[in-house]
Amino acid sequence: MFATLHQAAERHAETLSTGGWIMMILSIGAVTGLVVYCYKRILTHPEMDEPDLPGGLGP
After folding, report:
1. Distances in whole angstroms, Cα of residue 21 to Cα of each of 13, 24, 34
2. Which DSSP state fits 13?
3. This prediction's pTM
């Protein structure tokens, strides 16, 4: 069964064009960059803490 699926995949396999490679690399790079930016922003501590409000109010 797997041999027939493999043979069918080989018959219909097409190579990716140059434009396809560029689009794939750009899209994967954009998603990876966004994930890294979001994780970095979430996991790092803020530079300055918020000041305490008078009367003990605040975060």
Report:
1. 16, 5, 20
2. -
3. 0.55
